[in-house]
């Protein structure tokens, strides 16, 4: 009984801290509730986020505000075609020693921060984009044969503009798969735009205050992973991921017609982890199929590669995910 009470208190603390962060970020960022919640969930889950939206929608401001509310170190890198891997990870430089000698010293790059904003990631060359792979997957970088650990927690938030394609290098599938989720930043409503103008054109600019430490984020991460997963829910998530592959028997007609490649096992991992956080926020110590459904668009939309027919018909990955959920729920109801 004491153990159950302890768990209940921990879950209440999780929700309270999440709400504190949400409220503090909301002092600066207007609207964009789904983006804020998704980014916070990815941070707690230990994943990375790809933010897609046209310029001027507050993507950079969101990342900076999140870092301010978290007692965490923030860095920003503007990706350009001439950016080199060493500009990200750092390099060895020659320094003089007290005895007038010389030695190599590693000078850390901007990746050595807790929250790293990589702006317009698709503007850098594949060589530079690949420098992020080890950092995102292993939370470490290797320079001249020496491996350096990155600080914890470590979160990469990458932005890309979906409209301007000239002079860009599309992210390879392997790197897209490293992102825990992809969030679509929408244009604000008229009411939200009015609030933005009131906050940003006056004499005072709102600023977030630090409310939670990085150590607490790591504690919340451990707690989220303790949420149990029922066998039926796990099978539901597995079938949803398998259904994204056109050669699988559980694939829907839409997937078979429009999808070339489906989601990797990382997609199933992200589905479950995100669903666990959603369950806690809904005051439950178990995940439900509805949690998987809510998590599916953000987790799967960047892990499916459409074929030529899908692109020609202007089918979006979100359309495919919605079709998957409809069929999965229909199968569950039939069962």
How does the overall form come out from the CA principal axes? globular
Mean pLDDT: 82
State the helix count: 14
CATH topology of the largest domain: Rossmann fold
- Looking at CATH, the homologous superfamily of the largest domain is P-loop containing nucleotide triphosphate hydrolases
Give the DSSP E fraction (strand runs of 2 or more residues): 15-25%
Radius of gyration equals 21 Å
| CA distance, first residue to last residue | 35 Å
Number of strands: 11
Number of domains: 2
Q: Briefly, what CATH class of the largest domain? A: Alpha Beta
Structural class: alpha/beta
The helix content, as a percent range, equals: 40-55%
Q: How do the helices and strands follow one another from N- to C-terminus? A: HHEHEHEEEHEEEHEHHHHEHHEHH
Largest sheet: 5 strands, parallel
**Second CATH tier, the architecture of the largest domain:** 3-Layer(aba) Sandwich
Instruction: Identify low-pLDDT runs.
Output: none
Taking strands numbered 1, 2, ... along the chain, how are they ordered across the largest sheet? 2-5-8-1-9
């Amino acid at each position: 009984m004491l153990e159950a009470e302890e768990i209940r208190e921990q879950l209440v603390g999780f929700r309270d801290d999440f709400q504190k962060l949400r409220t503090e970020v909301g002092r600066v960022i207007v609207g964009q509730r789904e983006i804020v919640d998704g980014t916070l969930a990815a941070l707690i889950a230990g994943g990375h986020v790809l933010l897609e939206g046209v310029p001027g929608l507050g993507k950079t401001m969101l990342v900076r505000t999140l870092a301010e509310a978290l007692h965490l170190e923030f860095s920003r890198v503007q990706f350009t075609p001439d950016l080199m891997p060493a500009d990200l990870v750092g390099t060895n430089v020659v320094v003089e020693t007290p005895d007038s000698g010389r030695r190599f010293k590693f000078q850390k790059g901007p990746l050595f921060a807790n929250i790293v904003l990589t702006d317009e990631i698709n503007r850098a060359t594949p060589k530079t984009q690949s420098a992020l792979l080890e950092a995102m997957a292993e939370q470490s970088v290797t320079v001249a044969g020496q491996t350096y650990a990155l600080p914890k927690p470590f979160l990469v938030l990458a932005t890309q503009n979906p409209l301007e394609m000239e002079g860009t290098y599309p992210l390879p599938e392997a790197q897209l798969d490293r992102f825990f989720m992809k969030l679509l930043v929408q244009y604000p409503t008229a009411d939200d735009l009015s609030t933005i103008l009131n906050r940003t054109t006056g004499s005072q600019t709102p600023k977030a205050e630090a409310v939670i430490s990085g150590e607490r984020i790591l504690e919340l991460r451990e707690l989220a992973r303790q949420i149990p997963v029922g066998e039926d829910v796990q099978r539901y998530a597995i079938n949803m991921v398998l259904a994204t592959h056109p050669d699988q028997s559980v694939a829907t007609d839409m997937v078979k017609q429009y999808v070339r490649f489906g989601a990797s096992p990382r997609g199933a991992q992200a589905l479950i982890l995100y669903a666990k956080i959603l369950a806690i926020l809904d005051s439950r110590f178990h995940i439900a199929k509805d949690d998987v459904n809510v998590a599916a668009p953000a987790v799967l939309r960047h892990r499916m590669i459409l074929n030529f027919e899908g692109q020609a018909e202007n089918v979006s990955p979100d359309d495919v995910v919605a079709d998957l959920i409809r069929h999965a729920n229909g199968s569950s109801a039939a069962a």
